[in-house]
Amino acid sequence: MSASAQNRGKRLGLAKMLWWRARPDSAPEADGAGSVRKIISLTRSLMSDRGDVAGGPIAADILGLFKTLDQSGRQAFFELLVKDFSPNPDDVGRAADAYRLDPSPAHLRDLQQVVEPPRLELFRRLNMAPEGTRELIEIRRQVLNELETHPQFEQIAADLGHLLASWFNSGFLTLERIDWKSSAVVLEKLIAYEAVHQIHGWADLRRRLEADRRCYAFFHSALPGEPLIFIEVALTRGISERIPPLIDPETPIADPELADAAIFYSITNCQQGLRGVRFGGSLIKQVVEDLKQSLPRIKTYATLSPIPGFRKWLDQQPGHEEIQAMLAQPAAVDRWPETLRQQLLNLCASYLVHAKRTHEPLDSVARFHLKNGARLEQINWMADPSARGIKQSVGLMANYVYELGQLQRNHELYTRSGEVVSSRRVERLARQAIRN
Amino acid sequence: MSASAQNRGKRLGLAKMLWWRARPDSAPEADGAGSVRKIISLTRSLMSDRGDVAGGPIAADILGLFKTLDQSGRQAFFELLVKDFSPNPDDVGRAADAYRLDPSPAHLRDLQQVVEPPRLELFRRLNMAPEGTRELIEIRRQVLNELETHPQFEQIAADLGHLLASWFNSGFLTLERIDWKSSAVVLEKLIAYEAVHQIHGWADLRRRLEADRRCYAFFHSALPGEPLIFIEVALTRGISERIPPLIDPETPIADPELADAAIFYSITNCQQGLRGVRFGGSLIKQVVEDLKQSLPRIKTYATLSPIPGFRKWLDQQPGHEEIQAMLAQPAAVDRWPETLRQQLLNLCASYLVHAKRTHEPLDSVARFHLKNGARLEQINWMADPSARGIKQSVGLMANYVYELGQLQRNHELYTRSGEVVSSRRVERLARQAIRN
Amino acid sequence: MSASAQNRGKRLGLAKMLWWRARPDSAPEADGAGSVRKIISLTRSLMSDRGDVAGGPIAADILGLFKTLDQSGRQAFFELLVKDFSPNPDDVGRAADAYRLDPSPAHLRDLQQVVEPPRLELFRRLNMAPEGTRELIEIRRQVLNELETHPQFEQIAADLGHLLASWFNSGFLTLERIDWKSSAVVLEKLIAYEAVHQIHGWADLRRRLEADRRCYAFFHSALPGEPLIFIEVALTRGISERIPPLIDPETPIADPELADAAIFYSITNCQQGLRGVRFGGSLIKQVVEDLKQSLPRIKTYATLSPIPGFRKWLDQQPGHEEIQAMLAQPAAVDRWPETLRQQLLNLCASYLVHAKRTHEPLDSVARFHLKNGARLEQINWMADPSARGIKQSVGLMANYVYELGQLQRNHELYTRSGEVVSSRRVERLARQAIRN
Amino acid sequence: MSASAQNRGKRLGLAKMLWWRARPDSAPEADGAGSVRKIISLTRSLMSDRGDVAGGPIAADILGLFKTLDQSGRQAFFELLVKDFSPNPDDVGRAADAYRLDPSPAHLRDLQQVVEPPRLELFRRLNMAPEGTRELIEIRRQVLNELETHPQFEQIAADLGHLLASWFNSGFLTLERIDWKSSAVVLEKLIAYEAVHQIHGWADLRRRLEADRRCYAFFHSALPGEPLIFIEVALTRGISERIPPLIDPETPIADPELADAAIFYSITNCQQGLRGVRFGGSLIKQVVEDLKQSLPRIKTYATLSPIPGFRKWLDQQPGHEEIQAMLAQPAAVDRWPETLRQQLLNLCASYLVHAKRTHEPLDSVARFHLKNGARLEQINWMADPSARGIKQSVGLMANYVYELGQLQRNHELYTRSGEVVSSRRVERLARQAIRN
User: Taking CB atoms and an 8 Å limit, are D56 and C216 in contact across chains?
Assistant: First the structure.
């Protein structure tokens, strides 16, 4: 082992890797059908007693071969997971019958065993390979991509999602601050993943990590250097009402000690293969806690959030001809008369407060923050003048305020009675919408 | 040192802790019945939609209260886990019937859902508390301790064991070397946990971490500073035939560069609450890999292992009156005549090679190493002269050799045909036993 | 997480070591006179142009040989440093003459060059060896040990001390907290070095690192794992007046959140070879700063300090026959009548406030804290009942208070006018001493 | 202190910073002359007894004020350093006289003291400020920039350089590998500092850190995140003869396991303020050692180096009209006839082997590598076709081979007799040059 490895603080993770590399017959072949056949044979081996003891190398071979597959090869492998690694209906039937006759603990246990899809154990054993977790997330990403044409793969996505949700339990995540001192491996991922307010290269990224900005992410020990979800925060004086100053690389850097508000202006899920595993609510709360301690002068924690469903909803509302006429001229967005502006804000408040699907708000971002216990504070005119912002919400954006002492109460009001907790200001806007 | 410290600086795990501490009503009360009632109410809250979002603080309260319980309080909590958090037989029955009528994927999914004990979800949510994983392992330890008097708690132990086995998948473990530079938090645990060859305080420990010794452990990111299993290795010239020089603190320190053998002389599982979760086989292989790289002159990897079942088996064998006579005088162990010594070695070889329970060797240590693919190499006279060694195995110990290139073949011979792969020397001893 | 390990992985300091080990002819020989001769030849080589480029391996050889020397060998080496590595008087004379004739910058530079002892450059080059700094400190320690019999070595000690003071400039030191998570390598040094209030093994040490205690040390990057000076702190309610509860391993652990005072009860310089290099004052101030931030409820920062010169001074004072009579019976220390106790406290206050050597207090500990800007707050009866405490100061100890806002003012009063800044209480005691 | 700071692994360096910030009167003023006056007053304070104890905050104030100075302010400060912080000629004279009368150790010590410029002590005390070392390096950089117009500042540069050379002794440097996992803070400095073969942004940098490249730097603990000198290495098959494939971001990434040569193609000193402090030779040797261990298949360690003085020398050589004619048409560089090419190579070999200034080679790069003990191996046609390469050396570059076992011998041949150790091939070229 080299000097560098010796110094590597005693973390000897590589040994695992080297062990299987030493095996002479483990070189993956490249051609498609052969690879699938080889994978099938290896999965049998991995599920056997041998896999139980020496699973790591076999798992590594399977994952190595999987990477060489083209789309049809992958589909063949997923078909295998459906056909050969689902519960056996006869076994399930027999166990169900036995339980019906005698609902004893033993029969229950039998039933539990036969209904568990064997692919769960396969996934657990694949995880023993070096980088196994990363590969399983990638496999799920590819399964999700096939769902439209292969709905039967849904069960694979569901089983793997269930397993990953257990493994990525929030008790296993660590919150880390990301700044310009962070590794380039991590930083390049922010550039790649940020979808809400795109990061245009390293200079742009650097501005978002300056003294008056904060960035936090959740990490899992099995995915070093790989953020799962990250949040971007601007430290400002007062609640930000417009997005451009927050993301413009030319905005002068402010003294963070003078800030009294922290504005969460972007949250990004990084791993498509973890779709459906939720981290967001706990992320914001932990970030608020950390900011409270490191910057005690911050008094307000608020988002500056898109309103993704507003325009679509608005187009379905009858009346509002004048507004619709303005919307037909997107270039004229700066020249809205004051009364129409006001009318649009009223309608947006009404949308956020009253528009529902079953019991919950129609707007997905509103659902997320309200469920977390935040309060809808304010709606801002021309807050996002980008083409996308105009298209989604006529440039409007909303602030949701996170007040730690109120989160639990608000959350309960929301979950019990579907109440959208709003500021007086927003309530007034919503009332005016109805009156008009 | 600074680089690591800087990076550690970004791990903000404490925020989680502080958030719930900030809540005014979370101080756990102390009295027994009240605590149990409070726990019950909190578990309901944790399992509700609210727990899904704000689970961490509630989970922390439950675990905090649990720690204040006395034995009867704990039993009451475990009873709750059995009664209120098991699958509902009616639901299971109905879902089984539906599946019998129509074995569709949807019915299967229903069945899967209703047979899963709700306590699994409870455990997953408890894990969201700071130190949640550590507490769940402690809860399982206490459940296991109650099994004798409360066999119905077995299902709790099984469910929690199942969950922990998934979470402690070997893909999530890191192998670390432990030496005198390690934290006292870790080192004191070696002293506390080592059961095979007891460590008598810090001076004794220090000797076991000198230049001619190695110590490795598996760690999990959720249990920092807490070894899960550790292994002690001596670097020697030739295969060690006796344990005393390996554990005597006065043994002179040898130059590790001159060693040609690595002797694994002790493996210790540290967490009672993880009983049944297996790490051992993969530990030895990874350690061999690391030693191969850091000390390329090492040619032989072997254990010096106890033979825990030998004496018990021997006492049940007919004949061997002379041997039995000697055994009746433990103090005379040094004065065995050569022929009797030889006879005892023959019998021991026969025990290890031929004595079986169903298809596997009767000796538990033999089962472990042979299943891993090791070879039974040698049996040593008076290798462990301690009272315990005399009692267990008349002082005999065995060497099992780990030859990387042979592990897979040996493992397959063992699992397919139950063959005990042995050296010629041991085979000869075993043959002589039969002949006699 | 891995990031820390990754970063540690890149510190490749060992390479340096390996390079010189690779050289075939570098094995140091062992016999005494031969070693000295070899060292002499190597020092010449190290001081040559060759040493300038390839100094590391030669330096390593010299230091390796030095370790094999017995006392007479070391003395021979030190003689060499005096004879061959001092400024050349003729050169100095010539350069002085030239400067006298023409005090030009060029002549000054010549003079500067010839008065610098060549051993300074030798020490700088020896520092290029792996562990060079550690060895140079050890060499100085041995030089200091020889001073009594070899006063001519004083110049070596002075030169090396000058160099080390520059290298251990407080800008290069890092303050680190030491607790039970620290490496055993560091912890065992606390046990070994603590001289004021001895640490009796690991259990005793552990108590001193519990939640209601703090320990800090200065480290230098060239001496990893080697504390230079460390300070022990107890978190208490109110100013501690007696040492036993602070160092008794059986003292119950208090909640640090309830403490309002931090008592510095022991400061230990670890490196004899760094004698005369001062770290202490800046250590206390930095520790106070860190405590202020991590434990904002602490209001008082005070020492509980020995009064090492009191008894000696007292014995030289005329009168006080009753006190002298009591002192003659050390065993009766508990049975002092109240009036005598008061009289002794008065005398001690008078000693600390008025007894001087030139302009500074006679008491060395008083000098240290007063120069730092602390205030003499209180003198405590029977604060240190150990044999040593009785012998030094009749069991009395003093509290010095560090009030950050006053340090500078006090320090200036002390340095300008020699004023001993004291509390009213101590001033009153001192006045009573005079009145009596 | 925030959670993140608490986790910062006990490195409490910030305390130092905060202490002085807490002082009410320490806010630096901004106007020029006032700042200089304030600095002068503070330097007096820093040099007093008070500065000895409480130096850190005063030093921080001085350095903070220094940063606010414009050029004339800085010059005024440097004048102060010359006038008020140089040795006092009268004192020097008196001490020289005393020594002449009686060359005793005491008189020598007096002389040593008065010839040491007081600014050395000033610099040592300034180093006690947070970031003090960084600021002192910056001060020296600015002093060096003034030398042309203010030659009298040379003594400041010399004194500070002497001090920094002592502080940056190679025993205090750590070699670290830099790769894409490194902090962006470090990586952006590679882009900024690389002068030989410019790095054009992050994508270009990334290519230079891929699997078939290596980058190492020296760091000092007082300058975290600040490389002092770095070296870029390409892992190749055979000795590289041309620079473009090594620095072209489009060059395909090769498997490092297949490489048999490590080519050092760029060494960059990063800190102008450390000009004259040498790290280079020891850097290459340590890198070779690390590569030897981590990539044992590498057999050849060689540079691909510029020949900066060739063209200038060539232009001064009489004859060679044909060559001079070609050189007059730089665009035609591809169309040199073979004989002229050969002739140019011969001349270049002659230049490197025979052209001297006093005893050393005329070429500065040759001097550096030959002094390190490398061997001049090969001269390559059109190795650097950049405008700069053509201008410096008609596109020629040289390989110097570092053979660990030969370094010492070669170094001695070079320093004793000025011999340029060359390969037979280069020797032949040089002979042909003479013959022609």
Answer: no
Residues of chain B with C-beta less than 8 angstroms from the C-beta of C225:
181
Residues on chain A touching D182 (C-beta within 8 angstroms):
183-184
- C180 class by beta-carbon count within 10 Å (0-12 exposed, 13-18 middle, 19+ buried): middle
**3-class state of residue D318 by DSSP:** coil
3-state secondary structure of C229: strand
How far does B48 lie from chain D, in Å, by closest CA? 30
pLDDT in tens, A266-282: 999 999 999 988 876 78
Q: Is D396 helix (H, G, I), strand (E, B) or coil?
A: coil
Choose among C89, C108, C294: nearest Cβ to D92. Answer: C108
If you ran DSSP here, which 8-state letter would residue B10 be given? T
Q: Which helix (H) or strand (E) holds D400?
A: strand D397-401
Give the number of C-alpha atoms closer than 13 A to the C-alpha of residue D319, restricted to the C-beta side: 6
In order of A137, A190, A246, C143, the CA distances from A270 in angstroms are 11, 9, 21, 62
Share above pLDDT 70 across residues of chain B, in percent, rounded to a whole number = 90
Asked whether the CA dihedral A74, A77, A82, A87 is positive or negative, the reply is negative
The pLDDT tens digits of the residues spanning C41-92 come to 899 888 876 666 567 888 999 999 999 999 999 999 999 999 999 999 889 9
B281: tokens are: 């086989």
Query: C-alpha D167: how far from its chain's center?
Result: 15
How does pLDDT run across C406-424, given as a tens digit for each residue? 988 898 889 888 889 999 9
Q: Which string of b and e fits B65-74 if b means at least 16 CB within 10 Å?
A: bbebbeeebb
Nearest residue of A to residue D291, measured between CA atoms: A2
Residue in B2, B3, B12 nearest the CB of D4: B12
The rounded mean pLDDT for chain C is: 88
Q: What does the pLDDT look like over B1-16, one tens digit per residue?
A: 333 333 333 334 333 3
Interface with C, mutate which of B17, B175, B177, B181 (most C CBs under 10 A): B181
3-state secondary structure of D377: strand
Q: Do the chains contact at A177 and D293, CB–CB below 8 Å?
A: no
| Contacts with A294 from chain D: Cβ below 8 Å | 2-5
Q: Which two tokens stand for residue B375?
A: 């070879």
Identity of the residue in D5, D6, D11 whose CB atom sits nearest the CB atom of B2: D11
Write down the catalytic residue from B305, B350, B393, B422: B305
The answer to ipTM > 0.95 is no
Checking if the pLDDT of B281 tops 80, the result is: no
Minimal C-alpha gap between B7 and chain D (Å): 8
- pLDDT of amino acid A26: 41
Mutate to test the interface with C, among A8, A131, A185 (most CBs of C within 10 A): A8
pLDDT digits (tens, 9 = 90+) for A297-317: 999 999 999 999 999 999 998
Q: Which two tokens stand for residue D296?
A: 């044992």
- Say how far apart CA B108 and CA B98 lie, in whole Å: 9
Could you tell me if B117 and B85 are in contact, meaning their C-beta atoms sit under 8 angstroms apart? yes
Q: What is the pTM of this model?
A: 0.88
Return the pLDDT at B23: 37
Per residue in D132-155, pLDDT (tens digit) is: 999 999 999 999 999 999 999 999
Q: Is the dihedral of CA A210, A211, A214, A215 positive or negative?
A: positive
For chain B, list the contacting chains (3+ Cβ pairs, <8 Å): A, C, D
Q: How far is CA D97 from CA C104, C114, C211, D101, D191, in A?
A: 16, 16, 63, 6, 56
- Pairing, β C300-303 against β C261-269: parallel
Q: Select the residue of C54, C99, C128 nearest D92 (Cβ to Cβ).
A: C99
User: Per the CB < 8 Å rule, is B285 touching A19?
Assistant: yes
Kindly state the percentage of chain A with pLDDT values over 70. 90
Per the model's pLDDT, the better-predicted residue between A140 and D279 turns out to be A140
